[in-house]
Amino acid sequence: xxxxxxxxxxxxxAFDVLSKEGIDYTYFDGNQPDIEWLAKNLKEAEVVVVxxxxxxxxxxxxxxxxxxxxxxxxxxxxxxxxxxxxxxxxCVANAPDAIAKAVxxxxxxxxxxxxxxxxxxxxxxxxxGWGSDTQRLLLATSIAGKRVGIIGLGRVGAEVAKLFKALxxxxxxxxxxxxxxxxxxxxxxxxxLDELLTSSDVIIVSIALTNETKGLISHREFSLMKPGAIVIxxxxxxxxxxxxxxxxxxxxxxxxGLDVYVKEPLPKDSELTRFDxxxxxxxxxxxxxxxxxxxxxxxxTEIVNFLTRKSLPYTVVNRDSCVEEKPR
Length: 328
Known about the structure:
Elements: E1 4-6, H1 13-20, E2 25-27, H2 35-42, E3 47-50, H3 58-63, E4 69-72, H4 82-87, E5 91-93, H5 97-115, H6 118-126, H7 134-137, E6 147-151, H8 155-166, E7 170-174, H9 180-186, E8 189-190, H10 193-199, E9 202-205, H11 219-224, E10 229-233, H12 242-250, E11 254-258, E12 278-280, H13 289-309
Parallel strand pairs: 1-2, 1-3, 3-4, 4-5, 6-7, 6-9, 7-8, 9-10, 10-11, 11-12
Helix pairs in contact: 1-13, 5-8, 5-13
Family: Belongs to the D-isomer specific 2-hydroxyacid dehydrogenase family.
Keywords: NAD, Oxidoreductase
Pfam family, one: 2-Hacid_dh
């Protein structure tokens, strides 16, 4: 049985790294392995790699009694039972760096799509509705000079700040913990959440989903926003109260660009699909060839270091609970 188990098929660069070091592995070639496959393949696994969209719960830990390291092949940890992992002494790590730039680019793309009426314009051209007043009806504004408020200044938030600063936007941010070194390095300003909401032309949600941030943006927060403000969500759907968002969109108070949703895939009958003032993408922000390749290489390299040198990945999130920890 393999020491390393992927519950999905990663970029082949991962296998090149592992094979070079003589580490055996197996993977599931599909979206979601069934319990029979997991029961068979996890029982001897020392390392398991899961994608951000798959859950790993107490039931899964029970199937992997020899598990030492659980790696998420991306940034999101909201599907992992961290308490259970820590209780069992299993290290949990993620791979947020390579994906951060891709997600930030997508946040910019969604902003431009909304701000410049890209999707609405495409629909008009395709439907043959381009008339003499179309350009006036789709009159847009530029990013330069606008205030962009970033909610959550993690890796993605920092990359978002760089992109919008390069386009001459004024960038402010709010996070649960102020990050003075980062804000000074990026030359951006920390403000309260309320000030960010009331003053920003574009609001980028890039904060991690936790019990504290679930429903962070709800009816009150939408009521504080400037009329016509653009809300971009590249974090997790549940950070925004979807009912409150739908109400704000239906009243024309805000515009939005969404890559994530409370329920995924987004149901065909979702009210979000009925509005022209929102651009929707199917959770693809982190899916670039470069991000997937670099993430795969990072994860595989850290697995090699862990198995051969007992060296923990620097991205381990429950370091104090890891039974295998030794200095790097």
